[in-house]
Amino acid sequence: MIENIPNVTLGIIAVSRDCFVRSLSENRRSVVVKACGKKGVSIFEVKTTVENEADAVKAVEEAKKAGCNALVVFLGNFGPETPETLIARFFDGPVMYAAAAEETGKDLVNGRGDAYCGMLNCSYNLGLRGLKAVIPEYPVGSGKEIAGMIEEFIPVARAIIGLKGLKIITFGPRPQDFFACNAPIKGLYDLGVEIEENSELDLLVSFRGHKDDKRIAEVAKDMEKELGKGGQYPDLLPRLAQFEITLLDWAEEHKGARKYAAFADKCWPAFPTEFGFVPCYVNSRLASRGIPVSCEVDIYGALSEYIGACVSVDAVTLLDINNSVPDDIFENDIKPKYKKYGGKDVFMGFHCGNTPLCKLKKEKNTALKFQLIQNRTIEKGKKPDVTRGTLEGDIAPGDITFYRLHGGPDGSLQSYIAQGEVLPVATHSFGGIGVFAIPEMGRFYRHVLVAKHYPHHGAVAFGKFGKPLFTVFDYLGVPDIAFNRPAGMLYPTENPFK
């Protein structure tokens, strides 16, 4: 995973207004660095303190020379408005601004820094210059508190850096009647993401060119080891291994000036008959290594997955917001144990078999299987052959964040974030699937997903990552960041008389 997700190398620059005591800012900077060390957060202490524009240039160069790709600008006192904000212009990477709180009432003459005041003018000057920066929820604090802000900044910085170096590679076009996977690509360029669109035939030619690749046996052996008893189609593994190698080689050969790659691939209806399998299991393996492969040429799905992988440094998946939970399952398996959820708070998230094995329950029915729906249409329900290749099982219980960054029909960006959990409830179904519970999901479904014309695909990060995702989307300038509003907080489209 590390190879396709950036490592964040942090630097901290202290700034000081020349009419304040400079050493106050420098001493407070050292306290922040020590507090970061106690948290296990590595941060390079830039020794140049910024009081003027020349200092700003020098400090940024010092940070760059140290290999920093993300910066914290620390207002140890009021700070010089112009030089401190120009740091964000001079530095080619994400920048966070934070300010020092006063330590004691015993030293409010020479020991008073007024950074609480300075942060206001800093924000104003950033706005005047049209400069982007990350400003924490409450950006003023002690050294320990600012170290906590810096710790929260790291996943945000990782996502911002990753997007700047990302190329999304597609093999399409999208399947017929899947307008939900429509992708007006201008939004990608607005975000700084590059895209390479290819034909499904290009992928087929490359796949055939890997027929006798010497690496196939080794990759197939690794698949066999990973699947264990769930590897019920050993004859299929060489074909799947050949495809995995094809995708990885394509990424390496086509990244160009970019450092990172994600895929949005067509996977039906022609894929099984021409390739001889369905690609779901391979997609799951790449996702577990930080290389998302979205289904059905869902470009914004791949983008969303990649952001989640950067934020969580973990495997992610893409699921259909698929079906309601039957009343008998709710009454028997959910209601008695999870009283905080009503019937409209739960649903099943599903996809054919692209969720990584590490995110599925370790059960007997978790295995390499076949795509039931395509088997019905392509193989007429007979013994599966070309429709084999899904990784199926119930998704493991635990906290999740369901989210999506999406390009609407007019090209504008919009997003949603909803935290919840996967319940330890049997689905009694097929595919990679789980019972999801999100507070007030029924209202969220109607007044965000339906009202704002979202597609059926949503990205899933395994854990509670709403806070960093919101910060990333806000930094990217996404004008609409929706969330599952609590009871009593109406949506603009919600009928107050219902």
Care to describe what's here?
By secondary structure, the protein is an alpha/beta fold. The chain has two domains: 2-163, Rossmann fold; 165-483, no CATH class. 37% of the residues lie in helices and 21% in strands. It has helices at residues 22-38, 53-65, 81-90, 115-129, 143-164, 186-191, 200-209, 216-227, 237-254, 271-275, 280-287, 299-312, 327-334, 372-378, 441-450, 466-475; strands at residues 10-15, 43-45, 70-75, 95-100, 140-141, 166-172, 194-199, 260-265, 293-294, 316-324, 346-351, 367-370, 388-394, 398-407, 413-423, 432-437, 457-461, 481-483. Strands 10-11-16-15-14-17 form a six-stranded antiparallel beta barrel. It has a five-stranded parallel sheet with strand order 2-1-3-4-5, sandwiched between helices. Helix 9 (237-254) packs across helix 11. It is globular. It starts with 9 loop residues before the first strand and ends in a 15-residue tail after the last strand.
Quick rundown:
With 498 residues, the chain is an alpha/beta fold.
Provide keyphrases for this structure.
Rossmann fold, 6-stranded antiparallel β-barrel, alpha/beta, 2 domains, 498 residues, 5-stranded parallel beta sheet, 21% strand, 16 helices
Biggest sheet, spatial arrangement of strands: 10-11-16-15-14-17
| Mean pLDDT metric | 95
Count of discrete alpha- or pi-helical segments spanning 4 or more residues? 16
End-to-end Cα distance, whole Å, is: 48 Å
Which ranges are low-confidence, i.e. pLDDT below 50, for 5 or more consecutive residues?
Answer: none
Question: For the CA atoms, what is the radius of gyration?
Answer: 25 Å
> What overall form do the CA principal axes indicate?
globular
